[in-house]
DNA sequence: AATTTCATGTAATTCGTTACATGATTCC
DNA sequence: GGAATCATGTAACGAATTACATGAAATT
């Protein structure tokens, strides 16, 4: 019954933390802002919202779209249900933000975790980035071993597929290296090679816990 | 009931087409040769094998590992179950190979389709590659539109995430361009118009001529 | 007036995993 | 003879989708 997906829950709480929204709008943001990696359908979203309300993390408000000036006064024409984060919900989200288990850097989770780095403390950001990197390096090692073993036996297409796959992983590792370097230097990654201008994240809560990164991933 | 996964079924038929195998070995090949993209567990594989046998596409043989010289004679010590492709199974696989619906170039399917390009006729290869490319270009267009709309409102991390995502897609498009170009140039004269006879797995398959002029890696 | 887009939801189904249960074979 | 790996399977669960069902609001 409990349609708690982990990642969907996390994303919903995170988006509602910024501002209240109704389901339809929430879904659009889910599939654009964060949606390069994942797409959710209503069949997932609405049940999830329901359970989050039951948990006490969200509150429902009959309402109109918040940027609709017309409907402020005389409308009892409820149709949209606007969800907002409760105090408990905020607490819950921050608890999730602080988690740095292996889950945080698996393929499915990493993207959405990164998307909310603006809300994440620096040491957690570091742990997640480094965890992700060592996860990928592990994977690279396996791929290299596998390619060494089977080099001769595979046809050109399979080989090309593996080569391209490895290159993709290597590319992500380089990306992570740049990000980690930026975090370390304390600058926000605005200078790395040649991307357009970026604004620093605004409300990043800086907790100065200099914990050594938990390197033993797996 | 029917644990037919589409992609798992396809991969199993394709691997067994090359040589008979038992489940355990099959799973390893699934997760190395093709496994950059997907990993399957026994809980998926064995039920799938069962239904493929029921369909008449696979046949079970009590057997030993085919490269174990000791056990050739006196062993009734069955433990492994070696699966081989039946005639119907071959037909089925070739039917699947020929399909060029939109399914063939979605994220999940494309990898495994590509892995068996060595068995695929040229025109189908072309359609799959071009289908994949236009799918990605579609996605790029959406991402660009979305970024144009929301540029100002997002924090640096979200933006960086989107930028990296877009770059990944662009990179895959360039890869596809090279592959399509190679296919176009490398017209092999020995191209069978419709399926029927396939080369033995040892015979040199056509080379995709990946031609990597950029060696940004290694 | 009709069509599109907005908006919310439920039921059945798909695709796959994890945890469990069992046992043979090989290596030390 | 004990551990690691090989080998096969099942039951319970998980996460998300698709298809369905409904209806209000905006646009043409």
From TrEMBL, chains A, B:
<dbReference type="Pfam" id="PF03551">
    <property type="entry name" value="PadR"/>
</dbReference>
<feature type="coiled-coil region">
    <location>
        <begin position="126"/>
        <end position="160"/>
    </location>
</feature>
<dbReference type="InterPro" id="IPR005149">
    <property type="entry name" value="Tscrpt_reg_PadR_N"/>
</dbReference>
<keyword id="KW-0175">Coiled coil</keyword>
<dbReference type="InterPro" id="IPR036388">
    <property type="entry name" value="WH-like_DNA-bd_sf"/>
</dbReference>
<feature type="compositionally biased region" description="Basic and acidic residues">
    <location>
        <begin position="183"/>
        <end position="209"/>
    </location>
</feature>
<dbReference type="InterPro" id="IPR052509">
    <property type="entry name" value="Metal_resp_DNA-bind_regulator"/>
</dbReference>
<dbReference type="InterPro" id="IPR036390">
    <property type="entry name" value="WH_DNA-bd_sf"/>
</dbReference>
<feature type="domain" description="Transcription regulator PadR N-terminal">
    <location>
        <begin position="12"/>
        <end position="95"/>
    </location>
</feature>
<protein>
    <submittedName>
        <fullName>PadR family transcriptional regulator</fullName>
    </submittedName>
</protein>
<feature type="region of interest" description="Disordered">
    <location>
        <begin position="183"/>
        <end position="218"/>
    </location>
</feature>
């Amino acid at each position: 019954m409990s349609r708690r997906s982990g990642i969907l829950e996390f994303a919903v709480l995170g988006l509602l933390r910024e501002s209240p929204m109704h389901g339809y709008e929430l879904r659009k943001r889910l599939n654009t802002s964060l949606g390069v990696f994942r797409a959710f359908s209503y069949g997932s979203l609405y049940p999830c919202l329901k359970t989050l309300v039951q948990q006490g993390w969200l509150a429902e408000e009959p309402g109109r779209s918040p940027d609709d000036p017309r409907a402020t006064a005389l409308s009892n024409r409820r149709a949209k249900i606007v969800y907002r984060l409760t105090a408990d919900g905020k607490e819950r989200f921050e608890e999730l933000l602080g988690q740095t288990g292996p889950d945080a850097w698996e393929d499915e989770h990493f993207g959405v975790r990164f998307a909310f780095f603006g809300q994440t403390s620096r040491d957690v950001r570091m742990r997640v980035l480094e965890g992700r990197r060592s996860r990928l390096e592990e994977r690279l090692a396996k791929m290299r071993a596998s390619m060494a073993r089977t080099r001769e036996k595979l046809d050109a297409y399979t080989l090309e597929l593996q080569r391209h796959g490895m290159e993709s992983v290597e590319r992500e590792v380089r990306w992570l290296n740049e990000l980690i370097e930026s975090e370390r230097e304390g600058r926000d990654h605005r200078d790395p090679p040649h991307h357009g201008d970026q604004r620093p994240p605004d409300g990043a809560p800086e907790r100065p816990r200099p914990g050594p990164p938990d390197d033993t991933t797996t």
